[in-house]
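User: I'm preparing a small set of examples for a lab meeting where we compare how different chains pack in three dimensions. I only have the primary sequence for this one, and I'd like the structure in token form so I can line it up with the others. Please keep the answer compact; I'll paste it straight into my notes.
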Amino acid sequence: MGDYVIETNQVTKAYGVFLALDRVSIHVKKGSIYGLVGDNGAGKSTLLKLFAGQSFATEGEIRILGRSGEKELMDVRKNIGCMVEQPGFFPNMTVEQTLKYYCIQKGVPDGRRVGEMMQLTGIAEKRKTKCANLSLGQKQRLGLAIAMIGAPQILILDEPINGLDPSGIIEMRGLFHRLNQEKNITILLSSHILSELQQIADDYGFLSRGKLIEEISARTLREKCSNCIEMALSDIERYSALFEKAFPKEIYKILPENILRIEAPQKDAEAYSRLASENDIYITGMRTIQTSLEDYYMELKERGAGK
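Assistant: Understood. Below is the structure token output for the 307-residue chain.
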């Protein structure tokens, strides 16, 4: 229990007969970056809103920093910084005024905190700009600055890199790493840019149609997403029989057009090609493929998980 700063047990959120979340149990480790993956409408924002206290579960239990029950959760949420969905600002207030307002709201002594947060999130040059005139990416930076005002132990971020240009995404990635590693802040975030999420997350939760279809560590995911080798062969039936005898621990599939795919190969490609040449079987094509986070998620969905 002490290893998790956020934990749910069979949490359900219903809107009438529609289940936005269906018996979801997730486990966010202290000091980790947890990536929430799912299509639009999968339930990501709904789940983050429950943690932020912007909505309440229909059934199930939520524990944050070891506390549960709405009264205790209300108190413990002082240790959480949130940016869920589009950050809301007063359009005629400047960036600096907005941050000062949230300092007052959160009971944070002003002083240098506003300037520090603007510098930290790269929004300082827009300090005198009204919120109505900010770009989407600049609003995301301001939203993160607001979330950080209270020096939280946990950050909950919904699509935090949405609207950022490539250099902004790289800067934000570095910021997340610094907050996590230097300040030991646990970060729970969702993102539709899965290639970026793959570079920063320690653990993943895959949501589909309101159900958690898998939780997996980045290390296990890397093992599952290791390279595969595809070989187009002149005699796939004979080669597959030889392959099973020569490499009994290897996992393979036979695909259309006489292609054999070796999943997570344990040998160099040369070993597989040598088996073919020694038995007068011709290799007409050969390639190595790396499975991405996007591919892995799509495979989960194709297997019918969450139906």
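A couple of notes for your slides: The longest strand covers residues 4-15. The longest helix spans residues 166-182.

User: Perfect, thanks.
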